Amino acid sequence: MQHIEAGARSIFLLVDLNFDRILYGGTLIAALMVGAYFGSI
Questions:
Q1: Are 29 and 36 in contact (CB under 8 A)?
Q2: Rg from Cα positions in the chain
Q3: Separation of alpha carbons 30 and 34, rounded Å
Q4: What is the DSSP letter of 29?
Q5: CA 39 to chain centre
Q6: What is the C-alpha to C-alpha distance for residues 41 and 36, in angstroms, rounded to an integer?
Q7: Cα 13 from Cα 6, distance rounded (Å)
Q8: Contact between 15 and 22 (Cβ < 8 Å)
Q9: Cα–Cα distance measured from residue 5 to residue 8, given in angstroms and rounded to the nearest whole number
Q10: What string of pLDDT tens digits covers the 41 residues of the chain?
Q11: CA–CA dist 19, 37 (Å, integer)
Q12: Whose C-alpha in 5, 14, 24, 41 is 20 to 30 A from the C-alpha of 31?
C-alpha cells in the first residue's frame, strides 16, 4: 500500500512540475482547432 501511495505522490509531483507545459500544449491545440474551424467557414 505504501508503494502505491508513493507512486501516486510522484505522479502528482510530475503533474505539478509540468502543469505549465500541459497548459501550453492544451492552449496550442485549442488555438489550432479554432483556426481550423474559422478556416473551414
A1: no
A2: 17
A3: 6
A4: H
A5: 26
A6: 9
A7: 10
A8: yes
A9: 5
A10: 666 777 777 788 877 788 888 889 999 999 999 999 999 98
A11: 27
A12: 14
